[in-house]
Each structure stands twice: as C-alpha cells, then as structure tokens.
Amino acid sequence: MINIVVSESPIELANVNWSELQLAHCGASNTFTGIVRNLNHGRQVSAVSYDAHIPLAEKVLKEIADEAQKRWVKNSSIFVRHRIGKLMVGELSVVIVVHTPHRDESFQMCRYIIEQLKVRVPIWKKEFYLDGETEWLKGHELCSHY
Question: Could you tell me which residue, 21 or 140, shows the higher pLDDT?
Fold first, then answer.
C-alpha cells in the first residue's frame, strides 16, 4: 500500500489513522518527520515556503515509493505527506511512515524516500530570514551509498 499526498493542509500527526497503515505481517514501523528549523547555514530563519507542481510531485513520490518497495519489500506500507505553502518555524513540512516485516528495511526505505524526495521531487523551498532577506534553496545531493 502506498499513500502519497502533497497539500497546503497542515500535517497533524494526531489525525493520522495509524491502524489503516499497518499490515498484519509487518512488525516494524519507521517514521520520519521534517520540521521547519530556525537556523540554516548560520542564518536565522523565520519561515519557509514550499511550492510544488502537485500532480507531478505526487507522481514522482509514488515512483520513489515504488522503487523502495522493489528494492526492499514489495508488500510494505508507505505513507508520505508533504506540505506546501508558507510554514513557520516548528511546523511539520513532511512525514514519511514505512511499515515492513523487519526493522532494517524499514529504516532503509524511509531514508531512501527522504533522500530521493530532496533531489527528485518538484518541490521548491524558499527560506525567509530574520534580516528580511529570502533565498531559494537547491535540493540536497544524495549520500554516496544511494
């Protein structure tokens, strides 16, 4: 099962139906949450803005999730939410949940999804700084082991 959504709606972990994501044969769950931080490369951040081409972003996220399942566990559960719009420091920007039979593949799949998301998904991030300046950020390079 793969569930992907890119939306302006705030991500509320309390509203996630965790039982809907679980599969009876899966005993491991890994959750990654991305949170807007107040400092990046020595600059004080007040907010970030994410822009996206939503249909294409969801399509690429689905491709990444499919790749993860093919590489590690086909019969797993993957849940991804990415928020777009202006987010303040402390707000959730992304949540990835992966359920697999064992912990190792759960960790690996979750890591693969976030790393691939950063460089392949058409979501653009603009930072707003306390000094009034703004800057569009580049995607992050993948680790050498991917």
Answer: 21
pLDDT in tens, 53-74: 999 999 999 999 999 999 998 9
Reported pTM: 0.88
pLDDT of 49 reads: 97
Cβ–Cβ < 8 Å for 26, 100: yes
For the sheet with 77-83, list strands across it: 2-7, 77-83, 92-100, 28-35
